[in-house]
Amino acid sequence: MPPTLSDPSGSRSALPGLSIRATRLEDVDAITALANLPGYRAGTLRLPYQKPELARRWLEGLGPEAFNLVAVLDGVIVGNAGLERYNGRRAHAAGLGVGVHDDYRGRGIGTALLREITDAADNWLRVERLELTVFADNLQAIRLYERFGFEKEGILRNYAFRAGTFADAHLMARLRG
Fold this sequence. Notes:
Blueprint: E1 18-22, H1 28-35, H2 38-42, H3 52-60, E2 66-73, E3 76-85, E4 93-100, H4 109-123, E5 129-135, H5 139-147, E6 151-162, E7 165-175
């Protein structure tokens, strides 16, 4: 097995026991469990009670330009992140998503995932523009994205219906320096 970020040979994670690796098909149950956590789900457009079949179809349907990672802490998947490059005249840009297990927030997992995603975008994929949408009330995520150079470019009013009410979202992007 190749070294992970938590190996002594190349650790960049400040959290002992945390490793970042590529998403695998066998991660389907763990990814489904993440998607069904109330806090994790609140930051997404997912409905409650996601089925493993949805995660399996998503994993099996990832295109060649997709780049998806999971964060594993002591053998448990505690977060995931990914980017997917757009095509055609937007091939210089990619959409980004990051999520962390409800019980593991504030421990550097989102930072570790975002570090790897931005490194891959900058140094391996030559992505010039990373884009994301984040709910306006998700201040912890917004602060994380801002630390990585993302800037708010706009607001989407009543972006999505969530927990019985409409929620606004920010459009954020990071241009490669």
